[in-house]
Amino acid sequence: MTNLSVLVLLMPLLGFVILGLSGRFLPRGAILTIAWGACGLAFFFALISFISMLGTPAANRTADQVLYTWIVSGNFQVSFGQLFDPLSAVMLMIVTGVGFIIHIYSAGYMEHDDGFWRFFCYLNFFIFAMVLLVSADNFLFLLIGWGLVGLASFLLIGFWYHRPAAVAAAQKALVINIIGDFGLMLAIFLIFLNYGVLNYVTNSNSAAGVFNLIKPGSVGSGVSIAIALLLFVACAAKSAQLPLYMWLPDAMEGPTPVSALIHAATMVTAGVYLVARAHPLFELAPISLDIIAAIGGVTALFAATIALFQLDIKRVLAYSTISQLGYMFMAEGAHNYTAGIFHLTTHAYFKALLFLGAGAVIHALSGEQDMRQMGGLRKRLPITFWTFLIAALAISGIPPFAGFWSKDDILGSLLSQATTGNSALFYILWAIGVITAGLTAFYMFRLVFGIFFGGYRGTGYAKRSEEDEDEEDEEDAQHTAGNRLSIHEAPAVMTIPLIILGVLSVIGGLVGSFSLFGDPRYQPLANFLAPLFSDVGAINLAPTIGIGWISTGLSIVAALLGIFVAWRLYGKGFAYKESKNPLYQLLFHKYYVDEALAFVIINPIRWFGGTATSLLEGGTLDGGSRGIAWAFKKLSLGLRRLQSGYVRNYALAILVGVLLIIIYYAVRG
Amino acid sequence: MMPLSAYLIMSAILFSIGVVGVLIRRNPLIIFMSIELMLNAVNLSFVAVSSKLDSADGQMFVFLVLTVAAAEVVVGLGIIVSIFRTRRNIDVDEMNTLRG
After folding, report:
1. 3-state DSSP call for residue A542?
2. Looking at beta carbons, which residues of chain A come within 8 Å of B95?
3. Predicted interface score ipTM higher than 0.95
């Protein structure tokens, strides 16, 4: 099997280094060649490796290539290597493939930006970090990749660093992600304490990996629960689950291709990947999987309710991402890791498509992101409209689009887990999944109708929410929305990626399972990933046909209901009425979570910092040095009075001194 | 002969008068006169003791003290004259420009 993972890792790294050092001086064409070349070659090598893996028999599909032995300390070794197995092959294809598509799109979207070279430099860095994360063969380099991906997201969210909102969002993302990094570090410490090694599986440097030391079917002790939960803290931070989701909606301050790549398709899926990769650790503590499923479910419902009434189109998509990630965690909590990964791949297609489509709309309207200023764009932006519609149908779970197969897989396994395990939790989660599917369909089609149907409601003057004030040069004249006739479709470099992703959103679901239709042997993705998950216990993953049809039927009904309600309310265009209903206000203000956090955590910390500064720095250090000066000044003022200038005072002083000496000697005798 | 203590007490009284004169008077000439008085009081006590001890050392010392007193008066009077020429006023209390 040809394993070219090294090249997949090196190409974006080279691109990042070259662009970082010299990108400022290169012309556009050279920058694009390097950036597209790096990502494109990475995708090409990933594709070759993937195809070659398809050609090898299933038993031989794991290859752990050790590249460099880093730490050798007695019996303990840490080496840098890459694990190439079906899971990492799937992840590499997604990361480099969708990444490459977005590289192409960004050339058009960032065309007018002065930081063009910087953007592609950071994009390549992100691809490198993500490849490192998914291909590393030990937990230490997973952690390194995890942190680098957080750094890349910080750089890209805060790309327009002159905007305070963007900088604040980048800081928020980084701070919340660091909480996750901390959880991951603690988990790694515990893993090392418990197992003595850090690499996943046996390789040329190590006799046994962590997963080899775990007997399938065993139940671990409290340490295992701690490890699993700490790993999940990291996943919750990176994949924006409750209670660490707050950074993702704010991260929409970054350019739209960044939102598409990082916050829809790749980075946020790192958490889902980690649960799938480290599933033996999670299987050791089954209660942790129940917790993961529960949190995933609650998050999915929570985020979907917030998305119902948001006005900024990117915010709606952000909450939608959080909600869909909740689905993936629900699937993994039901022990069906394949369903989680499947939804990850289909979600990458349609969510990236949704974001890129939104980006095309924003680009056409010169920076307008508020849904109240849009409408009736389907005639002017046909390609954007049709691809956006396909993605909306996919995410709503309408057959035969991609989202239907994966969402259905998840709901089916939830219901079968509920019925065979007789578990109330999974009944509730299944119900949440169906309800959320309905809500998803509703808010997605509210978005579609709001943007593309009805009459154009815009004033024509975009609030420039995404562009910097410095960007107002004559190049923007052709994109000014002041003249409605100038709203035109995006250039080919942006629409071709939309079309590619649209095709993927249609056919991407066909690697799923056709067991519903009576052919349980046809499940290509599940079969491909099966050798990895052979140690997952005898939990019934695939639902019986009866259960499957109940679940599928109800979810399709819910989705159609959502679309119908959206059509009734918004079919003629989006009429915004702010309602005084307190429930509406609660959802519109996102449950006031940000305000609550500011009140409970941020303001006390600010107060404490300010007080400590004024006490320690102002009072002690500053005051101390000023106080010494004051003491000396007072002393000097006092001593000054001896120098009166009067001769007679001096004569008196002499006399007094002489008298003292005489007395001294007289007393001494 | 009178007892030595009489000469020494006389010398002490003259010395005290001289000290009080230096401290109280404002005219520098009077201050100089008081200083001379102090010096001469010391001369008296030197001579009295040397006569009592039959040694010429005390009287030799008086020579030195007289010489020093004379030189000091010359310099001091020169300073007073120069001060008077610039300030037209020799009140010691007015000479406080060296105050801190």
Report:
1. coil
2. 645, 647
3. no
